[in-house]
Amino acid sequence: MEIFVLSIFPEMFDCVFNQSIIKRAQQKGIVQIEAINIRDFALDKHRTTDDYPYGGGAGMVMKPEPIYRAMDYVKSKNSNTHTILLTPAGKIFNQQKAKELAKKSSLAIICGRYEGFDERVRYLADEEISLGRFVLSGGEIAAMAIVDAVVRLLEGVLGNPDSLKEETFEDGLVEYPQYTRPRVFRGMSVPDILLSGNHKKIKEWRMQQSKLRTLKLTGEEDG
């Protein structure tokens, strides 16, 4: 998979994309990630990427020309790139969407800043995505989260592929409680069922706990 991330602060991705699972995925050649500086595609010597909004109002708006030119560069490398615009007005990102994106051969993620994009930038996007109904300073943190969620789903990325089968939200449920040594820690003990060796009973207990946690979570969200 190819992933292009368009931002005016591409250096923000250096640490995240060069650590842990994402780093190993790149080293294995499973994914190629390129952080693109939108300023490199600006039309003036000051590399301007924003301007005042028509009609007045607070803040600045990202100009369309540099973003379009940056996407021209992306499309020249892969014309089938699936393009995502990060915006609070987009559809909420979830595990199902991560699975859908993991099937793409090429992704481009456009990160906004300031008061948002010139409306014409929306025509570049195949879809608009949001992490939630809140506002960040820019799309970079959201892009990091989406890339991480997608890359770990690619075949060969995780050392144990079975890990994906029991993860939170994989079957619509929150993952069950996990324990490791020591057996007793500060008065808190590992449930006896996990030490019983009865795998059928353990599986039933875990499913029950997943359902209880999911019910609690959905109840809190509905409230």
Layout of helices and strands:
Elements lengths: L1 E6 L5 H5 L2 H8 L4 E6 L12 E2 L9 E2 L1 H14 L4 E11 L2 H8 L3 E5 L16 E4 L9 H12 L32 E2 L2 E2 L9 H24 L1
Parallel strand pairs: 1-2, 1-6, 5-6, 5-7
Antiparallel strand pairs: 3-4, 8-9
Helix pairs in contact: 4-5
Oligomeric composition of the shown chains: single chain
Order of neighbouring strands in the sheet with most strands: 2-1-6-5-7
Q: List segments where confidence is low: pLDDT < 50 over at least 5 consecutive residues.
A: none
Tell me the CATH topology of the largest domain.
Alpha/beta knot
DSSP helix count? 6
CATH class group of the largest domain: Alpha Beta
Average pLDDT rating: 92
| Fraction in helix | 25-40%
Q: Please state the overall shape, judged from the principal axes of the Cα atoms.
A: elongated
CATH architecture of the largest domain: 3-Layer(aba) Sandwich
Radius of gyration over C-alpha positions, nearest whole angstrom: 22 Å
Give the helix/strand class. alpha/beta
What letter string, H or E per element, gives the SSE order? EHHEEEHEHEEHEEH
How many structural domains are formed by the residues?
2
- What's the N-to-C terminus distance? 40 Å
The major pleated sheet works out as: 5 strands, parallel
- The CATH homologous superfamily of the largest domain is called SPOUT methyltransferase, trefoil knot domain
- Beta-strand segment tally: 9
Q: Estimate what percentage of residues fall within beta strands.
A: 15-25%
